[in-house]
Amino acid sequence: MSLHAPRTRGCKLIDGAQRLVAVGCARLHAGTRSAPSVQPEVVRVRDPPPEGNHHPNLPLKKYPKRVGDAMAAAVLLPPRLAPLRPHHTLGITSTSLRHITLASLGCRAAASRLRALADRNVYSGVYGPWTVEDSDVREVLLYRSGLVTAAASFVAASSAAFIPEGNAAVDAIRQSVDLFYATGAAGLGLSLVLIHIYVTPIKRFLQALWVVGVVGSVGTYLAGAQPLDESLVQYVLEHPAALWFVGPTFAALTGLVFKEGLCYGKLEAGILTFVIPGLLLGHLSGLMDNGTKAGLLGVWMLLFTVFAARKFQQPIKDDIGDKSVFMFNALPEEEKKALIQKLETQKVE
Question: What pTM was computed for the model?
Fold first, then answer.
């Protein structure tokens, strides 16, 4: 008998649910909203037996019809998934999820901007086809950012020469002039690392000039300016011979602007090629008066600003050059010979 008791209880539940559905359909079909007052129908079910007890003769509980309606709805309607509440042990809330989503969107936006700047055209180089990759875009942007940093630092430090004495801005600039010099030298060094020059020894020479100039600047400050409690820039202005130690940094800058003027035909770069060494040599030799030096310094500031600003108007591929040449230079000697033979064979065919 205990084997058939669960089946009897299940049948009662199903019969009760069917009766409820039939009554509801009849009411809807009759078109009436009000129902006669009747005693609530009672559905008798048994509590589930406790664990380990399967005796069928347990006391019955009486449930009102509304509870029976709910039970029938639970049986007939499909289940709905409730949203999970944030778990405190995971440390993830709706706010943090929103921040994570915004951060991922920001990374995707930055990557999409790089892809937009990258030129997907295939260019024909001397040693084969090449394209502009995202890494090329990053290098070019860093190269140009270094030039902007150098130009902005130089203009900020040099502007003190054109501001009347007694101005608070002059005192602020003079107190930070060595910081401007160090920042500009760092920006120039970054650009010299990332500059694209086909002839590698020329690139290494410009980098060596920068290193010598930086070492000379540090030595001049420690040996000359610091004992006198002066800034490096002020010491060089008062002691022109110090340019022998600081000057290689500006020689590297002259080489960079010469390369830009030669490759792209920029007028401001071509003029800077003569203005920079002219002003430095005039100060070193003592043959140039202060008025002339101030005029050349103003021209230097103006052209350097124009030069740095115009760099961002160029296409990315201009600062890359023929990428196949750099790819060829990076190959081992045996692979270089094999590639040259392959290209010669293709020309003959």
Answer: 0.66
